[in-house]
From TrEMBL:
The lineage of its organism: Eukaryota, Viridiplantae, Streptophyta, Embryophyta, Tracheophyta. It catalyses: adenosine 5'-phosphosulfate + ATP = 3'-phosphoadenylyl sulfate + ADP + H(+). It comes from the Eukaryota. PANTHER family: ADENYLYL-SULFATE KINASE, BIFUNCTIONAL 3'-PHOSPHOADENOSINE 5'-PHOSPHOSULFATE SYNTHASE. This is Adenylyl-sulfate kinase. Coiled coil: none annotated. Its EC number is 2.7.1.25. One of its GO terms (molecular function) is adenylylsulfate kinase activity.
């Protein structure tokens, strides 16, 4: 018989492992394990007892809680989608989120506070919005460089760069543009939870979509930066030649030409750029750094 080590503890709150010896005269019965998809088939005789409220599950590492949707009934067994239960798992509450079923949130003892203490900074999202050609990517790189030189860990999520990988399956149709923003908001949230200063640089033309991304983060850690550059300035720059293509009718739904841009109404930082008078990348970055310092995101 193989030697058996001591049981391992799960880090989730209210979850404990306990060993149950099978009678020697009875055959061993595989117990149900939990994998990333919420179902599993690992063998063994370990019982998982998860004591969580039946109505809610932990929904974010930042400590917020969300309704679990139709919760599974609290029974002496794991509740499956067909209503049946699996023997050997007690009071396990799974949930359905979107198209994912039978999923369970797991907490870890190392959270955002511990990661922030390690990095000596506070995780946040600096969301830079503005017309194409307003200087969003330039500001994002200048800000990242300035913070890096001060010993702070950052990561830039650039709209065009993300369409080379994460969002390569999305077009520029309205529904895909909305999904593009949603994905970036969720990724930015993860970076902030990791304790990084995440710098997102996207046109993100609609207030409602930016507000949705803001709502993902707690404690005012979503910092919206509006690069307020007039259309005339952006069109004169036209670094990628997109305005010319839009004016010629070769690009449809281009923001600022035949699709609207909704300026922020309550953003944290406005960087003004006028015709013949636009601030340098360094001065723009310094303006954002000053805000981060004044609001405690850059700790000594």
């Amino acid at each position: 018989m193989l030697a058996r080590g001591p049981p391992r503890r799960c880090s989730g709150a209210g979850v404990r492992w306990r060993r149950q010896e099978a009678p020697s005269a009875m055959p061993r019965v595989p117990a149900v394990g939990l994998g990333s998809g919420g179902q599993g088939g690992a063998t063994g005789v370990v019982k998982l007892v998860a004591a969580r409220p039946a109505a809610t599950v932990v929904a974010a590492a930042a400590g917020e809680r969300r309704a679990a949707g139709p919760p599974a009934a609290a029974v002496d067994g794991a509740q499956l989608a067909n209503g049946s239960a699996v023997a050997g798992i007690s009071k396990l509450v799974t949930s359905t989120v979107g198209k994912s079923t039978n999923i369970l949130w797991h907490d870890c003892p190392i959270g955002q506070n511990e990661r922030q203490n390690l990095l000596n900074q506070k995780g946040c999202v600096v969301w830079i919005t503005g017309l194409s050609g307003s200087g969003k990517s330039t500001l994002a790189c200048a800000l990242s460089h300035e913070l890096h030189s001060r010993g702070h860990l950052t990561y830039v999520l650039d709209g065009d760069n993300l369409r080379h990988g994460l969002n390569r399956d999305l077009s520029f149709k309205a529904e895909d543009r909305a999904e593009n923003i949603r994905r970036v908001g969720e990724v930015a949230k993860l970076f902030a939870d990791a304790g990084l200063i995440c710098i997102a640089s996207l046109i993100s033309p609609y207030r409602s979509e930016r507000s949705t991304c803001r709502s993902l983060l707690p404690n005012s850690s979503f910092i919206e930066v509006f690069l307020n550059a007039p259309l005339e300035v952006c069109e004169a720059r036209d670094p990628k030649g997109l305005y010319k293509l839009a004016r010629a009718g070769k690009i449809k739904g281009f923001t600022g030409i035949d699709d609207p841009y909704e300026p922020p109404s309550d953003c944290e930082i406005v960087i003004q750029c006028k015709i013949g008078d636009c601030p340098s990348p360094k001065s723009m970055a310094d303006q954002v750094v000053s805000y981060l310092e004044a609001n405690g995101f850059l700790e000594d």
